[in-house]
Amino acid sequence: MSTYKNIKISDYSYDLPDERIAKYPLNERDKSKLLISQNGTIQQDIFENCTNYLPEEAQLVFNNTRVIHARLFFYKETGAKIEIFCLEPVEPADYQVAFQETEEVTWKCMVGNSKKWKEGFLNQTFKIDEETIELTAAKIAQEGNSFHIRFVWNGGVHFSEIIEHIGQLPIPPYLNRDTEESDEETYQTVYAKIDGSVAAPTAGLHFTNPVIEQLTAKNITTSEITLHVGAGTFQPVKSATIEGHTMHHEQVIIPIDILRSFLENPNNIIAVGTTSVRSLESLYWIGLQLEEKRFDPFHPEIKQWEPYENEAKISIEKAVQNIIYFLAENEENAIRFSTQIIILPGYDFKLINGMFTNFHQPQSTLLLLISAFLGTDWQKVYHYALANNFRFLSYGDSNLYLK
Fold this sequence. Notes:
Layout: H1 2-5, E1 33-38, E2 41-46, E3 59-63, E4 65-67, E5 71-75, E6 81-91, H2 95-100, E7 104-112, E8 121-128, E9 131-143, E10 146-153, H3 159-166, H4 183-186, E11 194-197, H5 209-217, E12 221-227, E13 250-255, H6 256-264, E14 269-272, H7 274-291, E15 301-302, H8 306-309, H9 316-329, E16 334-339, E17 354-358, H10 365-374, H11 377-387, E18 398-402
Parallel strand pairs: 1-18, 3-12, 3-14, 4-11, 14-17, 15-16
Antiparallel strand pairs: 1-2, 5-6, 6-7, 7-10, 8-9, 9-10, 12-13, 13-16, 17-18
Helix pairs in contact: 6-9, 7-9
């Protein structure tokens, strides 16, 4: 355990020139470059040919979350501009229930220019389908650097309609530009369905409907899970060792049918994106909690250090079976939980055999996850990408890592 906590983040760095960060995507998603790394061998191609490198009977797991218009702007009577960045619902805590509310919700939010909003209400009036809506925001609590904000409105419209109408799509801060109309399409995957993320699962941005059709033609199955990506995905590691870094919590939903398919075909599970990796690997530890009767059905979660504080005593098959039995007994169709899991070099992957992912920032927890899968080859991969003009970060090029 102490070995993991003493990992120095400075050992997972590289020089990333600003000009290598893709500020905009390519005009055609699937024309991005694809770096393929397997058994220490690196090659490159175009993403539209990715099916040529996938093993037969592979099972791709996509994250079908959709990025919401999380940035809301209010103006005080003094003219001060206040930004409220919606992170996750508090009351009600379920995303879909919160989006369907028609009068009042409370969200955990970051507040920009909060010094100018010490007390009182923020108000905004606008129209949706000729209905005049008056929206009020009030601070009701503080949680670390965030606040609990209660939104109250009239008109009987859903909260999802309100943020879609007046909110702005958030894009990564390192793009150093404002959100543009084109981002509304390009910063969503073609299979995005479930509202909730404040950042896109960017590994999926390269997939197009023709590429997905190619997967089907090659008898490669596809499944969809949901992890709502939080703003913490951009949170830098500021401590010298990983022990001082606190991972963010993210909400996960995995349908029971997908769990059954994992039992039928446990090999060649390919995660599309690090969000899918973290979701799928968390499953093992949920199954172990059930085995050891530590599972809390009212607050199901995987904490940051759980994989390093508990011995992996059961097989992945037994872990998945435990979850299926639990869902069947409780007549539920999906496992829902919060994960804070951190995947570090030395981690023993339980479920996935490969992943699609983009290139990640230096000294980030996502780069640590990549190193956990590739070992020291991560340095060779990133050196190759820099030497061969690959584009980096959210709107950049793609990688396929296979065991």
